[in-house]
Amino acid sequence: MEVDKSSKQGDNSKPRQTHISPELANQAINDAITYSGGDVVVMARTCASGFCDALQQCYGSEEISDVFIACGSGLNGLIGLQVAVELQKKGYAPEVYAAEQSKHANFRSVCDEAGIDLHDFIPSTLEFYYDIVVDALLGTGFDGGDIRQQYWTVYEMLISTRLAIVSLDVPSGWDLSTGPRKIDVTADSFIKPEVLVSLGAPKLGSKVFAGGYHFIAGRHLPQSYFLEKGISVPAFPGEESNCVLMSSNPFRFEGANGETYGRPGQFNATLYTKNPTREWVDVDKHDDLWDELD
């Protein structure tokens, strides 16, 4: 795995904030749509391109192929859908789960046109058939309150899976300002991504991210947009680059099950919170396993 660290830098000429507030995060989304000519799909494609470039640095298509993408109904879900399309072009084998009908696109028609499988359920055999999971369930619209019932099944999967998770912009269920909710930290029941790809600029809650790699991705807004608002963002390595590494902890990347996730003075939760009981089965004698994936 190769990660480009050449542009892990920012403008240090004067003190600036490095993370953005929930208010600015939501304002930036609206401004990005305007910047894209009012076309939310165009913006989503731009974000997806940067996200996929970051994912590819950590998980090359020669190393892994099968990617399960969990999408919500909002903007993060739309970007997740475009991530699937982009990964397909890059030689991966993505499959999409849609928690409910999207507000922005017809997932079925997009997936059919691209030849991507679309699921409306979480396969119980998930960990046997996929290499990594993309978390595109909830985004900046999540206010830190209760998670809607429609999302509980996939949210529980994201909490309990032993597959590596790459979160889009904000790990689902994390508060934009503070990170994992206190009740979830106490219960050791929150999403713990190995890779976080923030869109445009990192959110305040990502300060407690303790996975392997944190990227900034997407040219959906010019970087001058954040600089004008007093936010220091690292420069992209070149004109053709769509992502830049913000921070890394390679010793945590692909760590063993049960290693700690957190930093001194913060939470100290296990990397994998639940240990579901699993057993190998003879697929020839269990037709339902195949039926579930069909």
Which structural traits does this protein have?
294 residues, alpha/beta, Rossmann fold, eight-stranded mixed beta sheet, two-stranded antiparallel ribbon, 9 helices, 12 strands, globular, metal-binding, NAD, metal ion binding
**Major sheet strand order:** 3-2-1-4-5-8-9-10
The sequence of SSEs as H and E is HHEHEHEHEHEEEHEEHEEEH
Number of DSSP-assigned strands: 12
Tell me the Rg in angstroms.
18 Å
- Classified in CATH, the superfamily is YjeF N-terminal domain
Q: What's the end-to-end separation, in Å?
A: 32 Å
Query: Given the helix and strand composition, which structural class is it?
Result: alpha/beta
| Main pleated-sheet profile | 8 strands, mixed
Domain YjeF N-terminal: 25-237
InterPro entries: YjeF_N_dom (IPR004443), YjeF_N_dom_sf (IPR036652), YJEFN_prot_NAXE-like (IPR032976)
GO molecular function: metal ion binding; NAD(P)HX epimerase activity; nucleotide binding
Organism: Chondrus crispus (Carrageen Irish moss)
Topology, pairings included?
Blueprint: H1 22-35, H2 40-58, E1 66-71, H3 75-89, E2 93-98, H4 107-114, E3 117-119, H5 126-129, E4 132-136, H6 152-160, E5 164-168, E6 174-175, E7 179-180, H7 182-186, E8 195-199, E9 213-217, H8 223-227, E10 243-248, E11 260-261, E12 269-270, H9 287-293
Parallel strand pairs: 1-2, 1-4, 2-3, 4-5, 5-8, 8-9
Antiparallel strand pairs: 6-7, 9-10, 11-12
Helix pairs in contact: 2-3, 3-4
Domain YjeF N-terminal: 25-237
Protein name: NAD(P)H-hydrate epimerase
Region (Disordered): 1-22
